[in-house]
Backbone:
């Protein structure tokens, strides 16, 4: 499983054969074959990693990827960086 900080990262990682754990902005929707992390606030924190294990490789036939809305102490910095990247691309 590969970490992805943007939809572009996700596409590159998946093209290389990885499932992805993608951080997304609140405005970004989940992509095809991507599920919300059940430990996230947006999923109601209904599972923890010990009971979920979706990030635990492919041994149990896991094929999908995971998305989670950015959160925590570095969320503001992440959103600022994403906004700066979007402005750079648009310029
Ligand atoms: S194992 Fe499950 S709960 Fe833990 S980070 Fe991965 S998707 Fe979220």
Residues:
């Amino acid at each position: 499983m590969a970490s992805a900080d943007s939809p572009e990262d996700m596409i590159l990682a998946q093209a290389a054969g990885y499932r992805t754990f993608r951080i997304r902005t609140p405005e970004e929707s989940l992509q095809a074959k991507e599920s919300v992390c059940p430990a996230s606030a947006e999923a109601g924190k209904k599972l923890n990693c010990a009971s979920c294990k979706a990030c635990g490789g492919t041994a149990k036939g896991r094929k999908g990827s995971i998305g989670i809305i950015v959160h925590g102490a570095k969320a503001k910095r992440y959103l600022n960086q994403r906004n700066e990247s979007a402005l750079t691309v648009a310029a």
The chain has three helices and four strands. Strands lie at 2-4, 20-24, 34-36, 65-69. The helical segments are 7-15, 49-52, 75-90.
